[in-house]
Q: What sequence folds into this?
């Protein structure tokens, strides 16, 4: 029976609605398993700009640092779009990542059998099932290397630099191997070692770290081949690890083959013992805000990831995953995952809060 301290950042748009849904599910898990989840709400994003003048107030950073994990809805919206880049709501995300030292972005891509028709791949491939996790390095690589404009031999030019240190590759590799160890014990490392020196270092280090995980099978794929194999044989992947740029692109490809953005959870984690941040992949969906129409499942599944990765509550996390499957199997759908081919009598359209209540009740 544990007591856990969670920082909750509802944010903007549909953020508060999906966060409210996730909290109902968390409360139910607490009841069922005898835990207390002490949730404290903090401001970030547009709502924080309106209240304090800045997207990430220092009190929020302190509140998050002082918790075991952070649950975040979404930030942003058209009313803040005219602000300069460093004052926009989305700055809060970068600020939190850097304040909490979050270097690994973990994104599962799961095709739930009742949603198989949402998979854009051939039905025979979809029928084999998809259950993989992407681990993307978040703080290094070309997004953070030297960049600029200059005069080159062919005239004016621009450049960005891909750069990885041994330490950065080691720590992301360990995150990925550990995750693979808790799943099907298979890891695919993605690089471009046939061309890039930074990728050759990446591969060398991953091979070295693999010696610490002899029970995990390691394969290497060049990024171009990985993008093809994700479409050809998605069922054969377990955990994939890649640098910032390749991981950014491929994790979106993996997400797409599983259907709606409303189903996709994510985690960002740092060093062991520091709070991880758990949030849906989607944004604040201003078009749906206040209409009880958003799909809360990405947020609810992010909560399951928090239980598993930050609080070591595997059984409780599995209970949420199973409850989501049960509710989908029973035919309940938010609008984004309604199958247009199915008759309304086969499926039951529900709103954000009813979907959350159904998942809570199924635990
Ligand atoms: P978005 O993800 O908010 O919306 C894209 C589309 O997906 C919209 O049609 C929306 O209705 C739909 N959608 C999103 N979440 C859904 C859900 N849970 N259920 C059903 N449908 C859903 O992306 P956008 O429109 O590009 O951005 C809107 C705002 O969110 C912008 O201000 C953007 O900067 C911000 N944003 C924030 C985050 C974050 O907080 N992590 C991520 C992406 C975008």
A:
């Amino acid at each position: 029976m544990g007591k856990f301290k969670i920082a909750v950042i509802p944010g903007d748009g549909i953020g508060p609605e999906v966060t409210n849904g996730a909290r109902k599910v968390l409360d139910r898990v607490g009841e069922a398993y005898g835990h207390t989840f002490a949730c404290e709400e903090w401001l970030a994003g547009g709502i924080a700009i309106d209240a304090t003048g800045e997207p990430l107030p220092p009190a929020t950073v302190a509140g998050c640092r002082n918790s075991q994990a952070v649950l975040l809805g979404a930030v942003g919206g058209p009313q803040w779009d005219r602000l300069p880049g460093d004052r926009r709501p989305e700055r809060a995300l970068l600020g939190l990542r850097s304040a909490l030292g979050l270097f690994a972005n973990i994104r599962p891509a799961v095709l739930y059998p009742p949603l198989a028709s949402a998979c854009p791949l051939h039905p025979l491939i979809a029928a084999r099932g998809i259950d993989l996790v992407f681990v993307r390095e978040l703080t290094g690589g070309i997004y953070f290397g030297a960049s600029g404009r200059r005069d080159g031999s062919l005239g004016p030019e621009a450049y960005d630099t891909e750069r990885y240190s041994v330490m950065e590759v080691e720590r992301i590799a360990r995150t990925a191997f550990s995750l693979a160890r808790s799943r099907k014990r298979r890891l695919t490392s993605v690089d471009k070692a046939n061309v890039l020196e930074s990728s050759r270092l990446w591969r060398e280090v991953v091979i070295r770290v693999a010696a610490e995980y002899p029970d995990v099978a390691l394969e290497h794929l060049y990024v171009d081949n990985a993008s093809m194999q994700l479409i050809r044989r998605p069922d054969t992947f377990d955990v994939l690890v890649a640098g910032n740029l390749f991981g950014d692109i491929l994790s979106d490809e993996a997400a797409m083959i599983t259907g709606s953005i409303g189903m996709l959870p994510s985690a960002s984690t740092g060093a062991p013992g520091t709070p991880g941040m758990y949030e849906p992949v989607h944004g604040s969906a201003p078009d749906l805000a206040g209409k009880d129409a958003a799909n809360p499942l990405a947020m609810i599944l992010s909560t399951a990831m928090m239980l598993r990765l930050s609080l070591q509550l595997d059984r409780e996390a599995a209970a949420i995953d199973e409850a989501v499957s049960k509710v989908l199997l029973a035919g309940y759908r938010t609008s984004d995952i309604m199958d247009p081919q199915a008759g309304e009598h086969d499926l039951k359209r529900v709103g954000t809060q009813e979907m959350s209540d159904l998942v809570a009740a199924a635990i």
